[in-house]
Write a structure and sequence with these properties.
By secondary structure, this protein is α+β, with helices and mostly antiparallel strands. The protein has helices at about 5-10, 25-35, 50-65, 85-100, 105-115, 135-155, 170-175, 210-215; strands at about 15, 45-50, 125-130, 160-165, 185-195.
């Protein structure tokens, strides 16, 4: 599989099969992902992989607090403006349409959101953390690391869903992992085999055409 194929196949999978994944496979993906670029070679990522009984234990802890905690950060700016507001709105509409949940059925939408807490049924949960004293450039580095993980997972026949959802549970995650006080929870990620029969996995999020956001100068 070449890189273009991996990029095209990668989606945010929200329904997984329970098939287990060997620890050496997960470790190999994460180790290879460490070739991702980072400014000054700081390699700011700190990563935890959880599966089996520990994952079940963690999910029970999170389920006991359905409203979450004070978030580590706000995932979206307040009063989101266009074109970002429209993109986010349309993505939500497209997602819930795949599983037949109308906008007015807010309880059903909240139940679907809560599926994040189950890692959408994936057998592996990953947590990506970094030192609190690091700044936005290192957050970007961690994002590049996560993207590399996602593409390497596709190469291995696996799928992922990045989850900023877990920034809403900083105390629960940190306490469970034994995260040092000077480190923060940036995001989680579900890792496993997609359930191809589930309609929610038919969603391919829309992308604007290159001309909307890109510009080339000085080319023939």
């Amino acid at each position: 599989m070449d890189v273009s194929d991996a990029v095209a196949r990668r989606i945010s999978v929200r329904a997984f099969r329970p098939d287990p994944i060997a620890g050496d496979v997960v470790a190999d993906i994460l180790a290879r992902a460490a070739q991702a670029p980072s400014g000054g070679n700081l390699q700011p990522w700190r990563v935890y992989g959880v599966s089996g009984a520990p994952l079940a234990e963690f999910k029970a802890l999170a389920a006991a607090n359905p409203f979450g905690e004070t978030p580590e950060y706000e995932v979206y700016p307040a009063n989101l403006w266009d074109p970002f507001r429209t993109r986010r709105f349309q993505n939500g509409e497209d997602l819930y349409a795949t599983i037949g949940i109308p906008r007015e059925d807010k309880p059903a939408r909240l139940r679907q959101l809560a599926r994040n807490g189950d890692f959408f049924g994936a057998p592996v949960g990953l947590f990506f953390c970094l030192d609190r004293k690091l700044g936005p450039p290192q957050w970007a580095d961690l994002g590049m690391f996560m993207q590399t993980v996602m593409l390497l997972a596709v190469e291995r026949g696996l799928d992922t869903c990045a989850q900023e959802y877990w920034a809403r549970y900083p105390k629960t995650v940190a306490g469970f992992l034994g995260l040092p006080d000077d480190h923060m929870v940036f995001a989680g990620m579900a890792l496993g085999y997609r359930d191809d029969a589930h309609p929610i996995n038919r969603l391919q999020a829309a992308r604007d055409a290159f001309e909307v956001w890109g510009e080339l100068r000085g080319f023939d």
